Each structure stands twice: as structure tokens, then as C-alpha cells.
């Protein structure tokens, strides 16, 4: 039950982030300057616009719920389930942002969703979802300094999912305590 | 009366989607490679850990690329439909799969290649629809179209 709630929360908060950001950006009109001053203006706009800040908070909630989700659900369910956000995004675009979604776009979105499910199901890619677990399992296999990144990635790849989940188990019960620091003695 | 503003050139939309997709894929790859070389978070003092992140040759460029991705996507939202941008940026899964097979040397399973074909087909379908289907409010910031 918890994992389905988390999947729902993750998908909905991620889509809310997309929808809020899209609304916030389209409210300001079309960007047309992309020089240094244009980018500075864009950043100023992003951090002062309430919709976009709320969208950012939504993204953060989505990210943390994903971390929680991955600690309670198996990776093979949790990661493909997050592809639902493509469908929820499109529904939000249609009904909240009032975009007209032609049938070709619907067909495309469904193809993309199915494709993403297949892509992430049969092996975690190094993408948005998968990059974050690296934080967690980084300690599992600390490479020797100077080893080539290719060699290391290849060596580390098989332990991917297992390492991620272990991060959330009670850490380091095996760390030896110094006997002199134990007041019972 | 509603005035239909001319839609932005398709070439600019394609350019920004390409920038977002490439920055996202390579940014995440670099963050992943960088975090692989960090010690376990719970084993070191926090300040030590943060300094280690700064010294890591992959993490700063990775974070920079992620920022480029975010800005490119937000720029796209200013003129393109959400329901256009989101499926198109899913192309990053294609790049990621190709990188896994040919750069990281993982053996990519056939199911993932079917996924890549489906994503490509879906993106082609979405790309045939108009970039925007609604009028954006006129902008005070807009003075010219480049």
C-alpha cells in the first residue's frame, strides 16, 4: 500500500512540477534573447516567479519521494512506474493548461511511455532516475584512484540495484566500537 | 478577438530540444561517474565530503550540464506546449542506452532496444504535431525573434 501511495505521489508531484513550470514560463511570454544578459534575465525570472518556485518545490518532493519509494519497493516496479508521469503530464497539459492534444501526439506519448518502461525495466540506465542511486551506492565499491572510468563503471554495473537499496538499511552495524569508549567496562 | 501570434521557428525548438537532451544525458552520465568515486556518505565528515565533491573532476561539469538542461527546458516551455516538450525530451533515454552499450560497455538487453525503437517512433509522431496549440500572452520581455 505504501509503495503505491509513494508511486502516485512521486508521479503526481513530478507532473505538478512540470505543469507549474510550464504555466509559469508561458505566462511570461516567449523567450527570444539567449545572450549572457538574456540568460541572466531568465534566471532572475525563474527565481522570482511564484509558479516556477512552486514547481521547483514539487520537483524536490518528487525526488525525495522517489528515494523513499526505492527504499520500500523493488527497483523493477518502482522505476518503470515513474514513466506514468508522461501520461499524467499530457493529461495535465490538456485539462489544466488547455493545450489541444492532437491524436498523433497522444499516440506518440503512449509510444514513448511504453518505450521508457521497456528501457528502464530491462536494466537501469544512467539517466535522471538512475544517476541519483549512485549517491547511495557510491560507498559500496570505492574505486582505486586513477582507475579508468570505463573500467570502473563496467565493474560497478552489476551491483547497481542491490547497492542502492542497502543504503537505506540500518548503516554500519559492523563498525567495531572501541572497547575503551564503552562505559560499561 | 484572439490574435494568433506567429509560432516560433521550428528550427529553434529542435535546437533547444537537442541541447536539453544531450545536456541531460551527458550531465547524468558525468554525475553518475563522479558519484561512483565518492566515499560512502555516512563514513566521512560532511565538510570533508563537500570538499571531495568540489575536487571531483566529474561532478562540477555534470552539475553545469544539468543546469543547461534545466534552462533549456524552461526556455522551451516559454513557447512550446508541455505536451510537446515532455515526450520529445524523452529522447535522452535513447542516448543513455547507446552510451551504456558503446561507452560503458554494458551488454544492453534486447528489451531496451525495443524500448528505444518505441521512443523514437513516439517522438517522431509528436514532432509531426504543431509546436504550440494555444496563444501565449504577449510578452513584455519579447522585443525581437532570433
Report on this structure:
The complex is a heterodimer of chains A (185) and B (146). Chain A has one domain (2-131). The longest helix of chain A is centred in the N-terminal third of the chain and has 26 residues, at 2-27. Helix content of chain A is 67%, strand content 0%. By secondary structure, chain A is mostly helical. Helix content of chain B is 64%, strand content 0%. In chain B, helix 1 packs antiparallel against helix 3 (59-77) and helix 1 (10-36) crosses helix 5 (92-102). The longest helix of chain B is centred in the first third of the chain and has 27 residues, at 10-36. Residues 138-146 of chain B have low confidence and may be disordered. Chains A and B meet through helix 1, helix 2, helix 5, helix 6 and helix 7 of A and helix 1, helix 3, helix 4, helix 5 and helix 6 of B.
What brief labels describe this structure?
A: 185 residues; mainly alpha; 0% strand; B: 146 residues; 6 helices; flat
Compact overview of the structure:
The complex is a heterodimer of chains A (185) and B (146). Chain A is an all-alpha fold.
Give the topology, please.
The complex is a heterodimer of chains A (185) and B (146).
Chain A (H helix, E strand, L loop, with lengths): L1 H26 L8 H13 L1 H23 L2 H7 L2 H12 L7 H19 L6 H4 L1 H5 L11 H8 L3 H7 L19
Helix pairs in contact in A: 1-3, 1-5, 4-6, 5-6
Chain B lengths: L9 H27 L9 H10 L3 H19 L4 H8 L2 H11 L7 H18 L19
Helix pairs in contact in B: 1-3, 1-5
Supply the helix-strand structural class of chain B.
mainly alpha
What is the count of structural domains of chain A? 1
Strand content of chain B: under 5%
Q: In total, how many beta strands of chain A?
A: 0
